[in-house]
Amino acid sequence: AKVHYHDFILTETNFTRLCSSKSMLVVNESLPGPVIRVTKGDTVYVNVHNQGYYGVTIHWHGVHQPRNPWSDGPEYITQCPIESGSNFTYEIIFSDEEGTLWWHAHSDWTRAGVHGAIVVLPNKETGFPFPEPDGEEILVLGSWYVGDVNEEVAEDLENGADTPRSDSYTINGQPGDFCECSKEGTYRWQVDYGKTYLLRLVNAAMNAELYFAIAQHNLTVVGLDGSYVKPVITGFVMISPGQTMDMLVTANQPLGRYYMAARQYDSARYDVTDYDKTNTTAILEYRGNYTPSADPIFPSTLPTYEDFVPALSFTSRLRSLANHDHPVNVPKNITTRMYITASMNTITFDYEGTTKSGLASSLNNVSWINPSTDVLLAYYRNMSGIYTPDFPEYPPLLFNFTADEVPDYTTTTIQGTKVKMFDYNEEVEIVFQGTNVFDASEDHPMHLHGYTFYVVGSGYGNFDNVTDPEGYNLVDPPKMNTVSLPKKGWAALRFKASNPGVWLWHCHLDRHLSWGMDTVFIVKNGGTPETSIREPPPNMPPCSSSAIR
Ligand code: C2O
Ligand code: CU
């Protein structure tokens, strides 16, 4: 195994998109940021130098970080921010992940510009579980905001107002041909006829699940969230924010230019009229001698904006590869079962002496509040008063969560810093239930730090604890770090709590994360040094008193 070193220099850098310029926090002056490329089992040290205005942390999304929560990154969960003018070195330990993952800032909404791909190559001995591709391409889907999104969001949260979705989506930092004055920068991928490429797709968008397709080219999905899946041949994919997908693309069509397009899939069905920038495009371009047509061909296989049926039907085709080199170990002796509702709510809060009401999100009717000292430090050093170990295993009331009219008394959520404790090696099953509380149902891409989990089932409506478990896939369920909890539906997942540490669970829509749709799992030590959290590095960023909501 090798050791790699990177320097990430965070600066405010100027960008022009959608006919307007602004400065935005990015890494090494690039959007998306640098690619981290490793072989399975390697270790990477990333020295993050913060030369911007905001305190920042960085998360290595999907990397398990065995016993090493100190370098996981979420602000006020495993560390305090790297303040402007200072630096911190992360130690990223790659154990069993293989495929594409990504990194992103985990402080307020700075991840809009601070993100990039991680490529984990297989060992030479094992290789890919498919013929070695002729080439590789990385496409990072993102969100563009014309203004300063951190300022906007801070103001919205103070006023209890709705937070912005985005002004356009992007592919490798570019909105594409359909957006005003952005055409010149449209991203191009050049291919040679007859070759097969490994396309690595990352959804780094802030608030949207996306459909993605390439005109006239099939996609063969072979990997998801850093694990291999049985090949799925499809005309489009649905990718949730946080997810990463590997697919094979063969350049077997007539020489020409083809649009690659991502389109917002809006499970909440907001009013489309004030928000019509749903498509982002890039161009797949064959090398060779031909006269290109005026406009590239647009993918006819891309589902429409409001069509939520293809999302779950695509996702339910995914199965773990489950072969000798990549075995499946679904926990079967469940010791903790949880049933967690994800809801949109209201809160009242005090702002500079006045009582205001605003939007909130909750898990089991608890809306998360960040502490002023990170949970990890408080847990490790036995500090009291930072969090309470009483996150509920069940929602406070069981009723028809997906009804059109959900009783009004659940709209107000309680706020707290409530964590769930697990013993080492517990076998855990969690059923997430999407609700229609507040008449606001939508998909929630739920992400767990420090782990991947098997998604053993999912469906629409209320979870039925008798019939639904009968349909669980315990043979080859897909392994993910982010699962799309369907709108007014459920998703069941299992994992073994074999990684001691402090791990964040949250919805990967930043609007919902900001409103409190998160909680923390603490997995206790196993009793030996090899099953315990490692020593903290000597220079963790100090926690000032500047706690934010
Ligand atoms: Cu992509 Cu909390 O993470
Ligand atoms: Cu959500």
UniProtKB/TrEMBL annotation:
GO molecular function, one term: hydroquinone:oxygen oxidoreductase activity
Catalysed reaction, written as an equation: 4 hydroquinone + O2 = 4 benzosemiquinone + 2 H2O
Boundaries of every Plastocyanin-like domain copy: 11-124, 138-289, 391-525
EC number: 1.10.3.2
PROSITE patterns: MULTICOPPER_OXIDASE1, MULTICOPPER_OXIDASE2
InterPro entries, per database record: Cu-oxidase-like_N, Cu-oxidase_2nd, Cu-oxidase_C, Cu-oxidase_fam, Cu_oxidase_CS, Cu_oxidase_Cu_BS, Cupredoxin, CuRO_1_LCC
Subcellular compartments: Secreted, Extracellular space, Apoplast
Transmembrane stretches, start-end: none
GO cellular component: apoplast
Cofactor: Cu cation
One GO term of the biological process aspect: lignin catabolic process
Residue span of region Disordered: 527-546
Top-level taxon in the UniProt lineage: Eukaryota
Keyword Repeat: yes
Keywords: Apoplast, Copper, Glycoprotein, Lignin degradation, Metal-binding, Oxidoreductase, Repeat, Secreted, Signal
Cofactor binding mode and count: Binds 4 Cu cations per monomer.
Family: Belongs to the multicopper oxidase family.
Xref: NCBIfam families: laccase (TIGR03389)
Function recorded in the entry: Lignin degradation and detoxification of lignin-derived products.
This protein's name: Laccase
The species this protein was found in: Castanea mollissima (Chinese chestnut)
Lineage, uppermost ranks: Eukaryota, Viridiplantae, Streptophyta, Embryophyta, Tracheophyta
